[in-house]
Design goal:
The chain is of the alpha/beta class and 174 residues long. The protein has 5 helices and 4 strands, in the order H-H-E-E-H-E-H-E-H. It has a 4-stranded parallel β-sheet with strand order 2-1-3-4, with helices on both faces. The longest helix is centred in the last third of the chain and has 18 residues.
Length: 174
């Protein structure tokens, strides 16, 4: 069974995002994945998603270095993680299927410049369904946007978010 060595852990969360047991769909008992991040458990991510989510929102999940907090506005809620690699794909499915978001934007570091080395690459591969754990086939990827931009690219990220919101409004209740 995997275990976090707190003396070596950078708390990026990539290990938790890779764990197939990190699923918010559990109905019985507490959410206790096979591996968790000290001081930033997956259960806290689920609780924040449930408490702040709404089907009319775009949920932005961003890494701490992405300037994503500045995207919060009417119709947009932001949840920040140490690295987007901490996001299990099942959370995107959960947010969309359970009505906690109308769309999900993942806001990470610039391509090839991830603060935690592999967070963007592994997240992109999971969402593209080429790396375990994979995003389920039932998820409508038109409701998912991945934004890989360097810190300080807030105008570009806002423009991408506005374009994404327009695209989502065109989908309606599909």
């Amino acid at each position: 069974e995997p275990a976090v060595n707190p003396n070596q852990c950078t708390s990026c969360g990539i290990c938790a995002g890779s764990c197939p047991t990190s699923t918010p769909f559990r109905r019985s008992g507490p959410l206790e994945p096979g591996i968790d991040v000290p001081n930033n458990p997956i259960a806290a991510l689920r609780n924040e998603l449930v408490s702040r989510g709404d089907a009319n929102l775009v949920l932005v999940i961003g890494c701490d270095t992405s300037d994503s907090a500045a995207l919060e506005q009417d119709g947009v809620t932001v949840i920040q993680l140490p690295c987007v690699g901490m996001l299990p794909p099942s959370f995107v499915d959960f947010a969309l299927a359970r009505g906690f978001a109308g769309g999900v934007m993942i806001a990470g570091c610039a391509e090839g410049d991830c603060q935690h080395r592999l967070g963007n690459d592994w997240t992109a591969a999971r969402m593209a369904r080429t790396r375990d754990p994979m995003l389920r086939q039932r998820v409508d990827t038109r409701r998912l946007l991945m934004s890989w931009l360097p810190r300080g690219s807030l105008k570009r990220r806002r423009r991408a978010l506005a374009d994404f919101r327009a695209r989502l409004s065109g989908l309606g209740d599909e």
